[in-house]
Amino acid sequence: MGKHGGKLDEWVDLLSGMDRGDRIDLLIDVADRFREVPPEVAQRPFAEEHKVPACESEAYLWAQPHDDGGLQLYFAVENPQGISAKAMAVILDEGLSGAPLEEVASVSDDVVYEVFGRELSMGKSMGLMGMVSMVASAARRRLASGAGER
Amino acid sequence: MKDIDERGYANPDVLVSTEWVAEHLDDSSVRFVESNEDPLVYPAGHIPGAVEVDWTRDLNDQLRRDYLGHESFAALASRIGITPETTVVFYGDKNNWWACYAFWVFQLFGHSNAKVMDGGSLKWKQEGRPVDRQKPSFEATTYDAPSRDDSKIRAFRDQVLAHIDAARPTVDVRSPEEFSGERMHMPDYPNEGALRGGHIPGAKNVPWARAIDPADGTFKDAEALRGIYQDELGLTPDSNLVVYCRIGERSSHTWFVLTYLLGFRNVRNYDGSWTEWGNLVGVPIEK
Predict the structure, then answer these.
(1) Cis geometry, peptide bond prior to residue A45 (ω within 30 degrees of 0)
(2) Most A CBs within 10 Å: which of B34, B37, B251, as the mutation test of the A interface?
(3) Has residue A89 been placed in a domain?
(4) A48 located within any domain
(5) How many whole angstroms separate alpha carbon A131 and alpha carbon A88?
(6) CATH 3.40.250.10 corresponds to the domain B4-126
(7) Do A56 and B94 lie within an 8 Å CB cutoff?
(8) Of B36, B40, B121, the CB nearest to A31
(9) Exposed, middle or buried: residue B165 (CB in 10 Å: 0-12, 13-18, 19+)?
(10) pLDDT, tens digit, for every residue of B10-56?
(11) B47, B66, B69, B277: which could join B61 in a potential S-S bond, CB 3.0 to 4.6 Å?
(12) Is A1 within the bounds of a domain?
């Protein structure tokens, strides 16, 4: 297991080896792939309990049981200019959906800096870290319910 | 929304409309400056010819918690190709909050030939106006920047302590949850980087975005703004006022509204804000 687990380490390895310009270009392309939560999972108005704390881009998270035993992550980002939040959502989904719950539960919010670099405003980093923390919290709750036992 | 000239502002010339910007895209006497919170917004598409000024890389000292000095400001001005005569039009994401912050920092260096594009990026893109991803470069200019003047529009912690001792008004522009200190008690989530929650004693809470029409990011008219800041809070244009938030970015937006749109004459932005006050030993805090 790598530092973060799942495919998240592959994202971190890829992005941390890039210079700032290339990383930004890639993250914009990643954000373009964002697809919001499907209507069969959630529809507007989204429930407050799914809203990511401290995220100025008004991101929402749904974490549902995955076929492989982990979580399937879905996001919505209500701020049309929330490009970083959309990129983070895609990376968390591709990196952690279906990963073992123990790995998801232990993911560190430092991953935000590894993905975006250290030049984030406090507010932006807090919001993105809020997305990571909410994903980890969902995994911890699922583990506490006994879902991680095989 | 009414035209800018019809909104009753004290200084309507400080705002320009998206139409005005569209008509001046090729005007060499004007420089468009985009400032955002999100570092991906500018490279993902900006007003053609606009340059990015980033608060972390461009406006802050890279070692101390402070703003750039006059030599760095002169270098920044040279890089973005402006002189003191250039009209600098700021705009950005999230209702122009970082645009107003950049505007405020430029005022520390006396660049008064500055404006804000009403509605910011949101309105520009809503209207389907052109954007591109090309980063412009400009011929370097010479900008004889004055020393930074922190005395008029910036407040420091000791000044804020004296300010509240004198029972002068303070406006906290954070969210009600931050103002009350509630957010500090949420487990597992970020706590805004401060050890204590609450607000500066006596501060009144007016979240900064109340000054904005959320539909298109434009500023509310003067009557609506007076209703918030004068009728609700009892402030007057003569009030000796300090505004603050977490690091001074949201409060620079309120500083802009009060100073330019309502004509308040003595508003200072406490940029140390809650990340300083909430970590200081021994200062009074109210919940």
Answers:
(1) yes
(2) B37
(3) yes
(4) no
(5) 8
(6) yes
(7) yes
(8) B40
(9) exposed
(10) 999 999 999 999 999 999 999 999 999 888 999 999 999 999 999 88
(11) B66
(12) no
